[in-house]
TrEMBL record:
It comes from Halospeciosus flavus. SUPFAM superfamilies: Glyoxalase/Bleomycin resistance protein/Dihydroxybiphenyl dioxygenase (SSF54593). This is VOC family protein. InterPro entries: Extradiol_RC_dioxygenase, Glyas_Bleomycin-R_OHBP_Dase, Glyas_Fos-R_dOase_dom, VOC_core. Residues 21-146 form the VOC domain.
Length: 204
C-alpha cells in the first residue's frame, strides 16, 4: 500500500486487539541525582516508585508520573555519568519524547528553563505549540500544548478531522485554520488559548 493510501481515521482499525493507552515508556538513563534533578525538580514530575531493575538488579528503576498517571521510567546506575551531547539517530531509536504542559504556564516554562540554563526553541506547529529542549543526556524533550482546550477523549477525533480538511485544502501541513474548521465541524466549542508567536520550524 502506498503511503498516501494509508487511511487516517480516529476509528479503531480492524486488528486482532487494541491497546488501551500508554502504560509507561522506559529509557536508559545515567544516574539517580541528575535524572531526578531534571524530571522531578525541573519538569515537576513526581517520583512515584524506585526499585531495582527486576532484570538487572545492579541498576535502579525510577518511575515518574508525567502528570496524568502515565509513567516515564529510567534505568539508572551511579557509575554512569550524564552526557548532554545530542543523540545520533538510527532506525528504531527514540527521536524525542513529547510531554503536555498547561498552556497558561508556557511563559513560566520558558523562564524556568532559562533559570536552569537549559536552551530551548519554540515553534508554532499549526495545530499545537511546542517548546524543544534537551535533558541531561541529550534526549530531545518536547513540551507541547494544544492551541484550544480540547477534551482529551476527543483529541484523536479532532486530529483526524483536521487531517481530512488539510487534504481537501491541498495544504502540505495541518494549519491553525484546519484545526479551527475541524472543531466547528465536530461541534466542539473549544476555547482558544493565548500563546507566544513563533515560527513554524518547517524545513528546519
Amino acid at each position: 500500500m502506498a503511503r498516501e493510501d494509508v487511511p487516517v481515521d480516529a476509528a479503531q482499525p480492524d486488528a486482532p486487539f487494541h491497546t488501551t493507552g500508554v502504560d509507561h515508556i522506559t529509557m536508559i538513563g545515567s544516574n539517580v541525582e541528575d535524572t531526578v534533578e531534571f524530571y522531578r525538580d525541573l519538569l515537576g514530575m513526581p517520583l512515584v516508585l524506585r526499585q531495582p531493575n527486576l532484570d538487572d538488579p545492579s541498576q535502579t528503576h525510577l518511575f515518574f508520573d508525567a502528570g496524568d498517571g502515565r509513567i516515564l521510567t529510567f534505568f539508572v546506575n551511579e557509575d554512569r555519568q550524564s552526557n548532554p551531547q545530542p543523540h545520533r539517530h538510527r532506525v528504531g531509536s527514540v527521536h524525542h519524547i513529547s510531554l503536555s504542559i498547561d498552556p497558561h504556564e508556557f511563559e513560566t516554562v520558558m523562564e524556568s528553563l532559562d533559570d536552569a540554563g537549559h536552551g530551548y526553541n519554540v515553534f508554532d506547529r499549526g495545530v499545537f505549540h511546542s517548546l524543544y529542549t534537551r535533558d541531561h543526556n541529550g534526549l530531545v524533550i518536547e513540551l507541547a500544548t494544544d492551541k484550544y482546550e480540547i477534551p482529551d477523549d476527543r483529541r484523536a477525533e479532532v486530529l483526524a478531522k483536521t487531517q481530512e480538511i488539510r487534504e481537501a485544502d491541498g495544504a502540505d501541513y495541518a494549519e491553525a485554520e484546519h484545526l479551527e474548521e475541524a472543531l466547528a465541524d465536530l461541534g466542539l466549542d473549544a476555547e482558544p488559548v493565548e500563546l507566544p508567536e513563533a515560527p513554524t520550524g518547517a524545513g528546519v
